[in-house]
Amino acid sequence: MTWLITGGAGYIGAHVARVMRDAGERVVALDDLSAGVPARLPADVPLIEGSTLDGGLLKRVFAEYEVTGVVHLAARKQVAESVAQPTRYYRENVGGLATLLEAVAEAGIGKFLFSSSAAVYGNPDVDLITEDTPCAPVNPYGETKLTGEWLVRAAGRTHGISTVCLRYFNVAGAAAPELADTGVFNIVPMVFDRLTRDEAPRIFGDDYPTPDGTCIRDYIHVADLAEAHLAAARRLADRSGDLTVNIGRGEGVSVRELITVIGEVTGDRRPALVEARRPGDAPRAVASAARAAEELGWTARRGVREMVASAWQGWLLHHGR
Ligand SMILES: NC(=O)c1ccc[n+]([C@@H]2O[C@H](COP(=O)([O-])OP(=O)(O)OC[C@H]3O[C@@H](n4cnc5c(N)ncnc54)[C@H](O)[C@@H]3O)[C@@H](O)[C@H]2O)c1
After folding, report:
1. How far is the CA of 24 from the centre of ligand 1 (A)?
2. pLDDT by 10-residue block (mean), the chain, 321 residues
3. What reaction(s) does this enzyme catalyze (predicted)?
4. Considering 29, 90, 271, 308, which has the largest number of Cβ atoms within 10 A of its Cβ?
């Protein structure tokens, strides 16, 4: 049994490849290297350079490696870029998925795991977001993830493919410094970037209806997230049907609390600057983690301090002080 991991040279994909391979699964990675880094993959995991939009290549890879399951992470993931280039996001994220699912169906592959996102929910006004909270994405990136889920479930039903959609919340940290996210698109690297430039971290709005006035999010360590993929892959191996599940810790952390932890870890405790709210930021977005525990037997183990400390080691390796 071999798993194809698309986006396997990416930040999350490389963590998933390592965890699955360490657990004894046979894995092969496919990545177009638009954002991937081959050195993130262990030497014994083959990397095929190519796109999910290339149906002929997918067919050859499935045959050559006798692929029996797919973990599909390859996607573009920047919200602002998706607003600027919606057709590109639909073409690559949804079109790439459609091409992949056609090849999967044709090859008779029966297991498919899809990287979805909390972005499918938009900004719901609830204490804990469950998988039954209505989906109302607020940008093209989130729309491509929701459309992707529909496509995965529809293809699964028609072609008899067992499917799992994992809706990740805010991913942070690294299992090893060389696996860290090198982009500066999420809050943790954005704060590191400010400190490295000798500038104070920024808080966008401290007048939200939350205990300290700053936005609350659910942060999940990428090593925990990778273990959730292994749990989902194992479930796919012995259960059919489809499952959609939140991947978070079920615990909210405010921006101010996060910046305090970053100050403790980096030793740079300068006070944050409070600026105006950004349009579209929800006051609170925290997962209900109950279904993941029940259906996957998986619960996050690592806390925010561990995420920040491991991300900082990665930052120092890639960017210096
Ligand atoms: N990082 C997060 O916080 C987060 C949160 C929710 C969901 N996700 C989803 O997780 C997945 C992985 O995200 P990541 O943070 O590792 O991003 P990443 O950019 O590091 O990884 C994506 C990888 O896919 C590759 N890729 C992109 N388009 C491709 C294509 N058409 N064919 C082949 N390879 C392609 C890129 O080169 C890259 O290596 C994405 O689907 C993303 O939307 C990420």
Report:
1. 24
2. 97 98 98 97 98 98 98 96 97 98 98 98 96 97 98 97 98 97 94 97 97 98 98 92 97 98 97 94 96 98 98 95 74
3. UDP-alpha-D-glucose = UDP-alpha-D-galactose
4. 29
